[in-house]
Amino acid sequence: MSQKDEFHNLDNPSDGLLRELAPGLTTRIFSGEQAMLSVVTLAPHAQGTLHHHPEEQWGVLLEGSAIRVQGGEEIPVKKGDFWRTPGNVPHTMRAGPDGARVLDIFSPPRPEYRKPGSGFGTT
Q: Looking at the record's lineage, which domain of life comes first (predicted)?
């Protein structure tokens, strides 16, 4: 395998493993041995399903605005904000009027995200 295969681009819609999470929410998955990146695109006012999983998750809002629902709290986030979601804490996100794009980082990688499919996995 060439090291060139280890390089990706956030703006290339055909890069990564595509997964539809919910209506108006898609992600492109990039999985390594110890960590996984997920580039999530949310349509204006789209909202994910409240869910949880054992993996630790970090997120950064790349574009737009949103409300991060985490552990029963609703926290507004803007471009450049980032957060940590400990394992098994219920969470979701609701996009603002212009939509949002989020980079999520999971450790360890989520097994259900290693293959094509739909949905968030564990609830």
A: Bacteria
Structurally, how many domains does the chain consist of? 1
Residue 89 CB-half CA count within 13 A: 16
Residue 77, in any domain of the structure: yes
Distance CA 119, CA 13 (A): 19
CATH number of the domain at 26, please.
2.60.120.10
CA distances from 33 to 36, 68, 108 (A): 8, 28, 8
CA distances from 45 to 16, 31, 99, 100, 114 (A): 25, 28, 6, 9, 27
Per-10-residue mean pLDDT of the chain, 123 residues long, equals: 91 93 95 96 96 97 98 97 98 98 97 87 57
Domain that holds residue 88: 3-113
Do the domain assignments include residue 121? no
Rounded to whole angstroms, the Cα distance separating 112 from 101 reads 21
